[in-house]
Design a protein that fits this description.
The chain is of the alpha+beta class. It has helices at about 10-20, 60-65, and strands at about 25-30, 35-40, 50, 60, 65-70.
Length: about 80
Amino acid sequence: MSYNNYPLEQIAAEVGDKIKNGGNIYQKFTCAHCGSRQTMDVPNVLYTSGKCEECGKITDVKKTGCNYMLVLSRHE
């Protein structure tokens, strides 16, 4: 499966307003070693590297790029 990863700087520019407006973002990246898709477990933080839960190796997210998952709450 192919995943969309974008430059970390681009993602950082996109998520600021989403967080300010009450959203929570979770950074996602693709392991450069085994290809497993990973999601960081701390919301609203962007990391420059990440450890794969599958193979245990470190990916340089600043080099390979990343994406994010946006979580919004509905208030009625």
